[in-house]
Amino acid sequence: MGSEAGGPRATTPGQQLRALFYVLPPGESSFRTLEEVPNYVEKSIPFFIVFIGLEFVVSWVQKRKLSGRINDGISSLSLGILSRLPDVLFRSIELISYIYVWNNYRLFELPWDSQWTWYLTLLGVDFAYYWFHRVSHEVNLLWAAHQVHHSSEDYNLFTALRQSVLQKYTSWMFNLPMALFIPPSVFAVHLQFNLLYQFWIHTEVITKLGPLEWILNTPSHHRVHHGRNPYCIDKNYGGTLIIWDRIFGTFEAEDAKVVYGLTHPVNSFDPVMLQLRPLAHIWNTFWATPGFCNKLSVIFKGPGWGPGKPRLGLPEEIPVITGREVPFNPSVPVYLNCYTVVHFAVIMDLYTELLGTVTMLSQGTILLRTGFIILSLTSFGLLMENRPKAGILEVIRCLVFVGAYKLGHLRNQFSSLGCAYEVLFALSAAFWGIQIVKQITSSKDKYH
């Protein structure tokens, strides 16, 4: 189990695949030190891509339709990238806080190489996740962070990657009791396994899994959790195991066809807006609500609460599902979808390069690359909404890339594509510049 202290351990593709399903045994995933723990999440990116492609194929064979849409898929991937960017700048708060408690307050130390410690940590991490997840639905301030994950009106493997930037800054406290006795190296493994397991359950192509439905969180159980049907609200919080929901009375089996998304859809693909608008809503509601106690309730009671209502709001106020709900899907030209996909692929290349070289870069370069990625993801969201001003942002973005790339501040994984990228962005800037001139000319003609 494990080996001598050193850098992160190498993993084989087979081990990565098994990690994705939480079936990598203790003998292959126990480590003496935190430094040895592999970055299972980062190394799973190729598997994410493969399984997303496989889901498209299976969905087409089963239903003669694709499992997702370009706009919603890119929105989910953008939110996933955005959620990981703080880890480029800072070490994970979940690990920092855990290590601090372990170093200063641990009561005793369980052996890192014991199978009992491994399985106890599996249960502990999932139990903590259940309560964090449940509280994130029942406390408005935490819901403002978590709702990002529920904002998609599709349910597919893209949705699994749709994560919140802010959520990790509230989830860490639920894990701290384990730091009193479970070594950080063991905790770090299960923190990743618990997250990875939840990737593959975000799909409609898997129906039921027989007896496993009694113990494990499955695609069927998690579809209910993502539903906005009244029977789905605040149900099935488990991460890997569904036993906690059965014990604490929050379990609901899949019944009527599930309609996905928020009870009040946000109708946007802008990743920054999706992250921050719920906080703005809480801020406005806080100041608009009379009475100090009521103001505190706006923050700490459920998102459906209002003066005179129960803590979690009134069930009868949940919008009724008619079966005629239409997802937010602005009409855009085919060329614009192709353009966005190509440019998003470039950003994925830049993002992967940033992850691989972050330890060798200056803080200024990291900030510049991070800022460019955020600018790009925001611009893609506006393009997919067919916003009139999106072209202006694209001109700025493309010119920034050309300048920063020439100066060596932006780099990609595949150096052979550098020249092609420069040409692509230069032509893109010219294209959007022409579109803006046409818009201005057309506007002037209307007033003459």
Task: Write up this protein.
With 448 residues, the chain is mostly helical. The protein is 57% helix and 0% strand.
How would a crystallographer describe the biggest sheet?
none
SSE sequence, one letter per element: HHHHHHHHHHHHHHHHHH
Q: Runs with pLDDT <50, length 5+?
A: none
Number of helices: 18
Principal-axis shape: globular
Distance from first to last alpha carbon: 79 Å
Topology:
Elements lengths: L12 H8 L19 H4 L1 H19 L6 H20 L3 H13 L9 H24 L1 H11 L6 H4 L7 H4 L12 H17 L18 H7 L17 H6 L22 H18 L3 H9 L33 H24 L5 H22 L5 H17 L11 H29 L2
Helix pairs in contact: 4-15, 4-16, 6-7, 6-10, 7-13, 13-14, 15-16, 16-17, 17-18
Summarize the structure.
About 55% of the residues lie in helices and about 0% in strands.
Offer a few descriptive terms.
single chain; 57% helix; mainly alpha
